[in-house]
Design goal:
It is a single chain. This protein is an alpha/beta fold. 27% of the residues lie in helices and 17% in strands. The chain has 13 helices and 14 strands. It has a ten-stranded mixed β-sheet. The chain is globular, with a radius of gyration of 21 Å.
Length: 450
Amino acid sequence: MIGRKPNVLLVFGDQWRGQAFGYAADPNVQTPHIDGLADESLNFENAVSGCPVCCPARASLLTGQSPLTHGVIVNDVSLNQGSPSMGKLFSDKGYETAYIGKWHVDGRGRSNYIPRERRGGFDYWKVLECTHDYNASHYYSGDSEEKLEWGGYDAITQTQDAIEYIRNHGPDDDPFLMVLSWGPPHDPYLTAPSEYRALYDPDSLELRPNVPESHIGWTRDSLAGYYAHCTALDDCMGKLLQEIDGQGLTDDTIILFFSDHGDMVGSHGMNNKQKPWQESVSVPFLLRYPSRFGKEGKTLKAPIDVPDILPTLLGLCDIEVPEACEGRDFTDYMSGGSDPSDGIAFLQCPHPFGQWWPGAGGRSYRGIRDERYTYVRALEGPWLFYDNERDPFQLKNLLGDASYDKAWREIDAELGRQLSFRDDEFLPGSAYLDYFGYEVGARGTVGYSL
């Protein structure tokens, strides 16, 4: 079809850290299909989730805005329907839109029906707000309020549903935008199908050097299950890629594989997300679009962030980016142009909650991640400074090291400029809770119902 816009397929797992792939040199995990995708993709090796926690990141994905703009600064609150919406922006330009899997920006109960007006413009709809029971997972289909069950391990059946959707949308049909949002590898870790769990012996795993002695046993057991989820999802990704290729959609389909944030899984003695360390912040970001960029992979250095996804996809599809989008369009950069980020990603935690609540050591923070350094400032002042080039496991905080004094002061000045540019006053988390009207419990978490 002359002038037809490309299909767009976004696939992401929840809490899949950027290091947990064969192509990223993880010595343990088996991800052959995604490794193959990396060989054919633009690989943003410094991709980050600047606000590395579920709902804020997902809201940024859908709107192209930062958490302090779209207002989703904690989990289980409702996304402002006045924000830009990925589904609606593509639908308005002739795209058929589909969303399958986990949503988690409705904020009105994790198992409740979500009406059409709160679906962000997505038409084909097989979604549940949130569940981590991957073997007894439910969803709502279209406009029916009947709660259905995926059956089996939900990522597998969700992937099969996505494959059926692709089969019904050939090269001569209107282009589609489809988001496939898997729940794993988010914990609970030990719930992948048995054939995948059998692949990983906890005692045989090679741990990252930043796992403390006190956490070795827990980390081995958790990583074995985490990796089992990863390999199960890798098989799902392989089936998706096979279907795209088999339907003759390869050249004119943009495939983006990424994650909303990472997972500490024992590194630095921590678990889960929100933290500013690499395992939490770093995410995969593989973009394949053969008719535009060829089919030979390339590694890119720019630190792309989750809010950049929507404007970049709009740019690739020649759709105007709304002024309300704050993310950056990397389309020209992908073709050899300048880096719109100037080599900088902005890190933020407006309000620590859940596993990162202040009573457990959590802090509000702002930071800068560039190609070499991670610098983080807490409300009390400078907190963390790592040379990721020399110290990839972030074992030594360089604040106080005289040889790095000039470097951290320069990046601290850049953080000040970023705060000013973003009109970010860097207030205590309670100020943002008051501003958005959120009530939280003792652990800083908004209450929710199942």
